[in-house]
Amino acid sequence: MTKEEIIRKLTSRKLWLAVAALVSGLILAFGGKESTAKTVSGVILQAAAVIGYVIGEGMSDAAGAAGAVIVQEIAPDKPPFMTGPGLEDSDD
What we know:
92 residues, 3 helices, 2 strands, 61% helix, elongated
């Protein structure tokens, strides 16, 4: 399994819903209270949202840190310009 596949699986909402359902079911099966099962499920789903956000932002930042992209506009009256992370587009 590649790193990208693992990341995709860890950010899957379906996976975290399944984990929350499994854990809450186990809590109820072993005599836990329904309120405890609901609380634990909620915590799991909230943690999944945070994990997904952090991984997504990390991937976005990593892609942005790859460097600026040089783009030349095809117009005889305009000079070439650069776009990329941290650079502003100018339409002078």
